[in-house]
Amino acid sequence: MSIIPQLLLNGIIAGGIYALVALGYSLVFGVLRFINFAHGELFMIGAYIGWVFNIVFGVNILIAILMSIIITIGVSFLIERFVYQKLYTKGLMPPIIASFGVSIFLQALILMIFGAQIKTYRTGEIQPGISLPGGMIITKIQIVIIAVSIVLMIALFLYLKYTKTGKAMRAVSNNYQVALIMGINNKTIISYIFAIGAGLAAIGGVLVGIEQNLTPTMGVMIGIKALVATVVGGLGNIRGAVMGGFTIGIIENIGIAWLPSGYKDAIAFGILILMLIFRPTGLLGRKTEEEIRI
Amino acid sequence: MSYFANILVFICIYGILAISLNLTIGFAGIFNLTHAAFFGIGAYTSALLTLTGVPFWLSFICAFLIAAIFGFLISLPATRLKGIYLAIVTFGFAEIIIAVMKNWQGLTRGPLGLPGIPKASLFGFKFASTWEFFVLAAVVLIITYVIISKIVNSPFGRTMRAIRDDEIAAKALGKNVMKYKSYAMLIGAGFAGIAGSLFAHYITFIDPSSFTLTELILMLSMIVVGGIASVPGALLGAAILVILPEPLRFLYLPSSIVAAIRQMLFSGILIAMLLFKPNGILGERRLLLKKNAKSSWFIKKLWRG
Amino acid sequence: MLKVVGLSKSFGGVKAVQNCKFEIERGSIVGLIGPNGAGKTTVFNLITGFLKPDRGNIIYRRKNITNMPPHKIAQLGIGRTFQIIRLFPQLTVLENMLLAIPSNDSLFTSALQFRVVAKEQKENIEKAMELLKFVGLDIKVNALAQNLSYGQQKLLEIARVLALDADLLLLDEPASGVNLTLLKKIAGLIKNMRKSGKTILLIEHNMDFVMKICDKVIAMDHGKEIAYGTPKQIQKNKLVLDAYLGG
């Protein structure tokens, strides 16, 4: 089938985005055992803010991305500080239900401010793609997406491995109590973790906004699939999040060679369910089965 | 005048949804996110059956049964998992169900939905007007309320609450935990199904967009507002969240703005309740909150790694 | 009554229980002692089905219960308490008790046979009250379990496991964290259990307690049983002393 290489390429592009967003879920879950269902909305907000600066204010795209990162991190900080922080101690359900609320609230807010009409970054004609061997076509922005995703992921891994703050994050993620004893300021580290997640999501949002378009609900599916990717890779495992992201991206894009294309989204959920039934720790998960299964 | 009847009908339908969701989440402690999908399964089942000539009362019952069967089937893999994983897997099932609704065009006409669903009728009497339908819906609501209250206060309900509180201790006392959880999901799903049937035969048009995650979050908000683990609380929450956005109708704003405000309203209330009054208006027992908020569950969990 | 043979369980690389073997006679009170990490609670979890052994067999009254799920084991007549108290915090003292008393709480009987259920309820409530009086908790009957004091919770746990009407009781540190008076009371309760024909295996760190009420003692260290005998014999056993004092 000669379309497979193209589908594979599409899968890698999508996978890169899923991986970027999935990292945010994974980092947060690793420390707080909390899944922020509103994370996808940070992706969406990043896209819109970048759009505002780039198209409405006419600012250079790189500065627009920078502003998007800063403001999205700010939003994430506010939400974490005023909503989630108070709820972590209250059990399993309150923070997650709250994150549902935040997700809906943010979508509605953007809908109200910007309206439901699709917005785009493009002000000119659609650029033709570049032809690659194997009959594949890739556009410039898609190349940028892959490149940026990979660069960011490598940067993150290096950061976690070699910098002081990065090591502190791993410490907090591994063992909260010990990290406290060792004098690491956990609250600050947690804020940094949220910030990194938000920043990555914002970048992903702008890139996808450029590649496709903007709607208030663009974060929903991406967020959900990134969550699936995190679970597939193993909740709390950062490498797993990346692996999961690419896995989902590739399988769902190749899958539509056989399934009706409307079921593309459902493929991710199918993978999710199979994973949870047969290998709930995920591909690279570190939690033992006894913590997941009853 | 039928404007008020319309509101009351929705209070009934959402009341049934909230009470049955409360059963699984509040009383059984199963963080189940498929409820809106079961609502949809009931609606589609009932609609498709009546569209092929089956009388309403039979479609209604089938809606309950089919939704309950789905609830049971999903409970089999789901109840083996803990907490967050249970939530995620039920969420996955819900999304798959919605995907099927959107794509199995031959059965459901996909995103176009099913129009022309016959109005409910019993023994030849057609519930054509809104007030007439309200009577039907109210009766179903009352029956639901009574049945679920009875279940919650029975020995079965007690065992379910025990499982919610401490599954391991329940097992040590000889309780087959998975069986109870499956029953809880089955019943919850079944009642969501009959709510779906009522919905389908009232609006006479259904499409997948009424059964998505957003609807589920609305239902969650109802039980959080009214009080988790309180049957009257669920009904109260439903009433409040149905009535509250109504004044917006009279402001002559464009519909997308109204929709946005409505969503901000209920999500805002949800967040506010969780922050300030997590037990809801009528929830007397501390259900969502774990006992020692300071040396909390999550810190212990973190420490165990 | 209970026989454990070749029982082994590892977690990752850690051998929590290695080739453990012992036998409990009916009607006796047996203590299970050993330093922290010796594997005692793991053995309990293996016997009661909360963990599956890697190797070995557990035989209760000639029946092999090795891979049975915990609720079935409980139904066979083996009751247990936990190191950390596991009551149902949002339920009342009475409700906690009623859950233990063998009764019919299936969905259908609850929904349908009102009068039968009511009668059984009444009988069970009487049984529960009797046991509560026995341990001295009858005045607290409608209090939420989470509102009891630590000592009261300990007593409730014991009353609840008695309500199970089990023949073999596994008590995990029944005397930990309680004052002397309560300690004596719990000791008395356990001796009473033996009088009613129950068999008891208990984990304890309080040596005084163990020596006073146990007929036999099993000592464990590093996942293996290292000694078995009467309390007096164990007290003099070199291996046991080494395990507690040495490394």
Structural descriptors:
heterotrimer; A: 294 residues; mainly alpha; ABC transporter involved in vitamin B12 uptake, BtuC; 12 helices; 72% helix; C: 247 residues; alpha/beta; Rossmann fold; six-stranded mixed beta sheet; 10 helices
Question: What is the CATH topology descriptor of chain A?
Answer: ABC transporter involved in vitamin B12 uptake, BtuC
Range of strand content of chain A: under 5%
* The CATH architecture of chain C: 3-Layer(aba) Sandwich
> Which chains have the largest interface?
A-B, 57 and 61 residues
Main sheet overview of chain C = 6 strands, mixed
In the sheet with the most strands of chain A, the strands line up as 1-2
Average pLDDT of chain A, rounded to a whole number, is 83
User: How would a textbook summarize the main sheet of chain A?
Assistant: 2 strands, antiparallel
Shape field of chain A: globular
Order of helices and strands of chain C: EEEHEEHEHHHHEHEHEEHH
Computed CA radius of gyration of chain C, to the nearest angstrom: 19 Å
The overall average pLDDT of chain C, rounded, is 84
Radius of gyration of chain A (CA) equals: 19 Å
Query: Helix coverage percent of residues of chain C?
Result: 40-55%
Helix count, DSSP H or I runs of 4 or more residues of chain C: 10
Number of strands of chain C: 10
Uncertain parts of chain A: none
